[in-house]
Automatic annotation (TrEMBL):
Domain named PAZ: residues: 174-285
Family membership: Belongs to the argonaute family.
Gene3D superfamilies assigned to the protein according to its UniProt record, in alphabetical order: 3.40.50.2300, paz domain, Ribonuclease H-like superfamily/Ribonuclease H
Organism of provenance: Fopius arisanus
Protein name: Piwi_0 protein
Amino acid sequence: MESNPEDVKENFVQLKANYFKILCDPNWGLHRYRLKFEPEEDNYERQKALIDQHRNVIGSFILDGPVLLSTHKPPLEFPPGDDHEIIVEYLGDIKPGDHRYLQLYNLLAKRALESLNFQMVGRNFYDINTPDAKINIEEYALEVWTGYQTAVQHYDDGVMMCVDISHKVMPQLSVSDLLEQVIETSGTDYQEAFTAEVTGLHVWTEYENKIHRIDGVDFSLSPLSNIRIAEGELGMTYKEFYKIHHNISIYRSSQPLLITNYRARNRREPAEKIYLVPELCTIAGLTGALKNDAIVKDLLSAHTTVSPESRIQKLLAFNNRLLSSSTLKEELQSSNMKLDSKLVDVIGKVLPQEKLIFGDDCQVDVNSEGEWTQAFKEKNLFHTVKLENWVVVTPEAYGFEAKNFVARMMQATRNFHLSEPHYVELEESTPECYSSHMEKSIINLNPQLLMVVVQGRRPEIFTRVMRKCYTEHAVPCQVITDKCFTSEDLNEIATKVAIQLSCKIGGVPWSIHIPLSGLMVVGVSIAHDNEESNRSFAAVVATLDKGLTRYFSTVSSHERNDQLTVNIIASLTKALEKFREVNNGCLPSRILLYRDGVPDKQIGNITDHEVSRVHKSLRRIYGGDVSLAYVLVSTHSNTRLFHGRENPPLGTVIDDVITQPLRKDFFLVSQFFKEESVMPAYYNVVFDSIRLSFERIQILTYKLTHIYFNCSSTVRGPAPLQYAHKLVFLVAQSIHTPPDPGLQDLLYFL
């Protein structure tokens, strides 16, 4: 690797993290016992109840079929009961580090939260019984619940509990209430409007404490219909079922049933339709109208934004409540464990601030807030392509505003040349009208790019526009709303849109020094199709040059995980072919691949199957060894870091204490927040033959957070992965099919 003295300067900083140590007796451990009940008892819940009567004898335990896992050292004997006898056979100890220890730790945390009257909704606990923790926004019939996410894990510095604050927005209405509102506003045509309103919503069924995503509505069914299962129908109505099994009375017999597609863990099997009764479903989150209400957004932000200082106070207060829980205290004492009362200390290293390269080789310092907007007023863009033939499609009512906006864009960037566009003014703002006029413009004018003006948020028009440009044709497109025309920051918005137009036709606004030749960086992002529950998409975005300014992208669809791996390999093969074409027949000397969307439980499976198969395929292409790093990325970890009462400095890296043993992992703070507590991204290097030190991988990763061209500031993840995420989200949410290959050399999806 080429030397660059600025790359290796490090400062160290003392931090705290949102973790509490669990102090364990070194002689403490888990023991396995086989249980036999006399008379025989097959009911699992009944078995647990019989064992629970003797908790003072056996301490904390987990029942796994006929095997009891307990902290009680052998011999273990149960006192004889009135109607049952439990016979015990000792099977041996469980080695420290086994995943079943974590099961026990997390079970203890769950019991403690339940003893403090926290309400479990989905996977998190909410403090809805404490008045200050539940905020009522009466004018919008909303409640904001404050809760906590807890997870106990083995870390480099021992066993710790990670605790973070969470919020859930709960509208105070059921889906049945929403149905009545839609009927009132839409009249006899309510069915289509109601389906559009609820599809994609998440709902909470309190009787089973589950969160479901609504995938559709069946108006041919009602609570009086017989229950449908995969094998046919049961001889019982939904109304009867809920009364018998949950003691719930359903009052509105004419309501339709909601459809949620249950996805089995084995994705080879088709999704199973589950039917829900609207009256029993509470909306969890915002409805479509409220999602786009700026006032609601501001109100919610005021209640859910937690500063570092406030977060520390809340975490310590929560810890104090846990320590005051007699249930947890007894459980921990019986297991020779103790929960620490202090946030854990960690040492972070702060990477040096970067310099960006603009046109004419001008260098710009990135400030301490990770931002460089001012540079666009003073510097030329790094590389531009003339936009000489383009079309603006706008409703007739916004013709004047559109022309004024284009004029501002022409003045916004110094060396990006925009010719006067062709204007197409629409008499009607319908999807069909947009589609037909765009078709004529593309056929007759063969433009480099289309810019489309839409009044307000119109997803049906956005979808039609995207499909027209990206699947029926191969024309870059920029959609803007009329809100841009009335913004107080009109010049700033015009500058941003102009830069996006430049990028979409092959321009590069800025670059960064990469002290490494022959590197290809790849981002792989996965998303589920919001129309077809069994279908998912994978986007692969790869760099093609040393400055990481040219990109190749491709999208594939799959229904099974084994198809996903095949598709990733095929996409990487295409990217390597393109790299070879651009670089005089040479393949990259190193490949740095970032992959998102992998839960902790699937890491082993991804490593054993996907990563190994990708590596073997690359070896076949290279005819031998290949320098590859495969990095799993989570940009939404629950970890929070604190520097005193503030956020850590930009560029802070943590690779000890709160990282995990046997992993090559680190946290990186690559964004600046003034008010909210920063959330570092988590990186786990699961395969590494790239011939770079761990520190070099960290430095490269930080550099990559500076070259996401959609904003003039650093971002949470590396740019190629951010691009892949944006592309796959566009496909999964809007166009539902891979885009035309004619676009794959452009960042058309920005």
